[in-house]
Amino acid sequence: MLEEKNHHVLSNGLSLFGHVHPCEPSHPPKPAPLQCAKCFTFGHSFSQCPNKPICPTCPDNHRSKPCPSAVSNPKCPKCQGNHPAWSRDCPQFIKPSQMTPETPVVPIKIVDKEFDPENSDDDSDEREPFVSARQFLRFITKTLFDLFPFEKQKIQSVLEHSARACLRRDLKISHSSNKIHFTFG
Questions:
Q1: What is the pLDDT of residue 127?
Q2: Gyration radius from the chain CA atoms
Q3: How far apart are CA 63 and CA 31, in angstroms?
Q4: Where does the source fall among the domains of life (predicted)?
């Protein structure tokens, strides 16, 4: 039933207030493995790092700035290859096919502007509850995306349909890289 509705909307567009708007499927990015910016090991963040800082462009144990090897001759401290430690060419870089649901991933960030009721065109009495609903939807989306990074498409669909059914508001969630964009209608 839901797939039929999705197909219909993608094929025919979405009709809102007498106007038909074209629709396209979302193409969420694959989750990115979490790599520390201090020791360049996978699985933890800079703030949780128990290791000493290393230079990502040479095998020496110094901070990344300044490093004479940084531009001219980078050398990965992990595999000794001719690339910096953050390069996707490094054999130690976790490829998407190697990731499992237990692999720590880069957390999602919400990048839309906060709703400002003072600058809203909506004069309805539902303004305050709607702000609370928006904040709740932001929170639950980020939480579910972080908990289930391989299920973003399903989570997005469920939350958009739930907002429409429960709040009678259109919600469009889009995400690129590690950022979530919300459009409330």
A1: 45
A2: 22
A3: 28
A4: Eukaryota
Look at residue 152 and give its three-state secondary structure: helix
Rounded Cα distance, 3 and 171, in Å: 18
CB atoms within 10 A of CB 175: 22
Residue 90 DSSP label: S
31 SS3 class: coil
pLDDT at res. 126: 46
**Residue 161 structure tokens:** 């349909």
pLDDT of residue 131: 52
State pLDDT tens for residues 102-135.
888 887 766 655 545 455 554 444 444 445 677 8
Judge if the upstream peptide bond of residue 117 is cis by omega within 30 degrees of 0. Answer: no
In this structure, are residues 106 and 145 in contact, taking their beta carbons and an 8 Å threshold? no
**CA pair distance 60, 52, nearest whole angstrom:** 12
Kindly state the tokens that stand for 56. Answer: 């990502």
Q: Give the pTM.
A: 0.48
Question: What pLDDT was estimated at residue 182?
Answer: 85
Q: Which amino acid is at 22?
A: P
Residue 93: is its pLDDT beyond 70? yes
